[in-house]
Amino acid sequence: MKKITAIYVRRSVSDKDKDNNSLSIDSQIADCKKSLNAGEDYCIYCDDGKSGKDIEHRPDFQRMMADAKDGLIGRIFVKKYDRFSRNMREYLNVTDTLDSYGVSVVSLTEPFNTATKEGRMMRNTLLNFAEFERETIAGRVADAYSTRSLETGFYQGGKFYYGYIPERRTVNGKNGSVLVPSDKADVVRTAYQLYKDPETSLTDILFYFRNNGIDVNRTPKSNMDRSHFSRLLESPLYVRADKDVYQYLISKGFEIIDDIDAFDGIHGLFRHKRRDGTEYVKIGYHEGLVDSKTWLAVQDKKSHNSQIPNNGGAKNSWLVGLAKCGHCHYALALSYRWNASRTKQWRYFDDHGAYKANGCIKKRLQTRPDDVEDIVFHAMKERIENLVIAKSECHKPDSESENIKAEIIRIEDEIRKLMEKLADADNVLSEYIRQRVNMLHDKKSELETKLQAKARKYKEIDAAPLVDPMSRWASLTVEEKHALAATMIDVVYISDENGVEINFSI
């Protein structure tokens, strides 16, 4: 099977901001193309605006690694090794993986031979410098952020604060961003007013906004839930901090940067974290949204609320973590109910999506967990049986693949014969031979692509390790059943209307 050359290009956000033409995507691609052999097949993998810190958040890099694993790539071209990765440990792990696939990595601007120990030493030294540069820049940014946070009450950027938007202003002769109320500020005020009532829960707040048609989400893609409101109700950002708030923070052991006189009953507080993990509180230039009496009442209520214990759902159903609502696609939790005389208990699925601002209206599913477990178990069993059959079929001669391979050999033989005649041919015959050879090359490429597609489609999956535990299913613990299911299944969608839908990962 003919392998291609991969061209991998990457540009970070900082390179884009600096308008660094030498590391532009087009420049990297053009330089890599110059190193290709005439007529060589290649594929471009591009991650624009992606950091070199790690490979996890680079989709085209992940696609390239998958293609390398499938045997489609012979070598990879990069302009510089740091385009590949700036993390030394990660780079070595990836290149070791590529070595096991038989794929080499070639840098255009660092042309030393990594097959020798000297070449590998030079490559590793350059990568160490690249990683050192990245960490130094990150450290300088963090130090500057920490200094500005201590000295001023400006918004330092990065973290989003619900209910506010940043606005450029001049305070005490210095320019910076100050938080000003956004269109969601009333949501914050209302949440505090509702929650200070002893009978109001976080769920009550969520349902209040939903039932009154109030959009609490910051963006169309976001979806506020109880945890968001819980964090919002704990934040000192929103309090109009006065002397009582100062005393409360002191009693809780907070490090406070400003003197008590700065707590004027108007401005809110920033809660910052140093690089060593310690925290401190600083008066901001923004005005708080909630009076101190309401804020302190909410803090007192939250401190006395006992944490709801975990129902141990993962220990009582092997589907927990895999089961999701078929409508909103949020996770389903396992809950329990007793009858009136508390003589009988039954399980049911509780939809976490019901606790989202845009979640499901129906909180509880009627579909019984026992029935779902039975359906999923039999589907897993059938899946493994089919995989075992498919593996045995894989070893049988595939007539279509064999015909394709035979046709490729026939084409290569015809091309070889035509090329032998080319030396003695006149101009007319030479032109005919060239046209025929080009046509045969195109046909060969088409057949090779078809063969690669078939190889991918019928890629073997070894189901043997799954057969034995499935045969002992009844004796497995809940944790063992969950682990086995997780190796086979991505997600199980459940709804009362459409039943059970299983998305297998194998």
From TrEMBL:
Keyword Nucleotide-binding tagged: no
Domain Recombinase: 161-308
Keywords for this protein: Coiled coil
Entry keyword Cytoplasm: no
Listed Gene3D superfamilies: Putative Large Serine Recombinase, Chain B, Domain 2, Resolvase, N-terminal catalytic domain
InterPro entries in the cross-refs: DNA_bind_recomb_sf (IPR038109), DNA_bind_recombinase_dom (IPR011109), Resolv_N (IPR006119), Resolvase-like_N_sf (IPR036162), SSR_resolvase (IPR050639)
Coiled-coil region list: 401-464
Domain Resolvase/invertase-type recombinase catalytic: 4-152
GO terms of molecular function: DNA binding; DNA strand exchange activity
Domain of life: Bacteria
SMART domains: Resolvase (SM00857)
Protein name: DNA-invertase hin
